[in-house]
Amino acid sequence: MSTAFLGFWAEGACFQLIAWAPPQSMAVPQGGLAWTGASSDTKGRGMSELLLAAERDAVASASRHLAEKGLVIGTAGNISARQGDLIAVTPTGSDLGTVTAEMITVIDLGGQVVDGDLAPTSEVPLHTGIYAATNALAITHAHAMASTALSCSHDELPALHYSCLELGGTPRTAPYATFGSQELADNVIEALKGRNAAMMQNHGSVAYGATMDQAIHRLELLEWLAELYWRASSMGTPHVLTDKDFEAIITAAIERGYGALKKVEKS
């Protein structure tokens, strides 16, 4: 998919499959961020006493959700949510399947701990970097099997299904760099240009969104697309969608109002 063509896609805001991203200079909302699957599970301090209580709960609930779905195993992954100049992020060494809201650490945009008893994830530069470079309010990172496997062999995930448009186009692979390094963060940010999800070479996958729901969905979609390619490749040479195919998809979607609820037209 060409860069110029992707620019055309990004403007199709009425097409729900297209991941339109506001300009990076757009002001970040100051309101709280909650995941619809979140549920209070703190011990000791009540939720109302926690700094960034809603964000901490959303991060913890999302972590358990991704662990339940098999996208993260044990400590392999990290999640965060932003509110204003603060970020709620999973702690380093935590089992994401059992993490609670009270275990979530709050840092500032410079990566300094503001609240919490546990040291934050080693991937702080990745999270703070993505927040600085995009309009993200939530970030999900995992070592999911299919996307991690594809990251070891492909610089880009071939477009086999039009749902890749939800990610801004065909996901790229960020070149390898040591985990937790600024180099890795920089590589991922470059791979995310014009996209909201990417693979990380010999490492994993990452996605962001304006809500935790969106960040989770995009990470899960990237994994589905990677597994689709993996399975198709095992059966033969997959047919890859072309720019012409995508142009027809966009035109049809806009004309039909695809992806949005609508009432039956009665004569």
Structure, explained:
By secondary structure, the protein is of the alpha+beta class. The chain has a single domain (28-255), classed as Class II aldolase/adducin N-terminal domain (L-fuculose-1-phosphate Aldolase, 3-Layer(aba) Sandwich), CATH 3.40.225. The chain contains seven helices and eight strands. An eight-stranded mixed beta sheet has the order 4-3-2-1-5-8-7-6, sandwiched between helices. The longest helix has 24 residues, at 212-235. The radius of gyration is 19 Å and the shape is globular. The termini are far apart. Mean pLDDT is 86; it is low at 2-32 and 39-43.
- At the fold tier of CATH, the topology name is L-fuculose-1-phosphate Aldolase
Q: What spatial form do the alpha-carbon principal axes imply?
A: globular
Number of helices: 7
Rg, Å, rounded: 19 Å
Low-pLDDT segments: 2-32, 39-43
The CATH architecture comes to: 3-Layer(aba) Sandwich
Number of strands: 8
Biggest sheet strand order reads 4-3-2-1-5-8-7-6
Note the run of SSEs as H and E.
HHEEEEHEHEHEEHH
**Name of the CATH superfamily:** Class II aldolase/adducin N-terminal domain
Q: State the name of the first-level CATH class.
A: Alpha Beta
Straight-line N-to-C gap: 41 Å
Strand content: 5-15%
Helix content: 25-40%
Mean pLDDT: 86
Count of separate structural domains: 1
Structural class: alpha+beta
For the report, how would you describe the main beta sheet?
8 strands, mixed
Question: Features of this protein?
Answer:
267 residues, alpha+beta, L-fuculose-1-phosphate Aldolase, 8-stranded mixed sheet, 7 helices, 8 strands, 13% strand, disordered N terminus
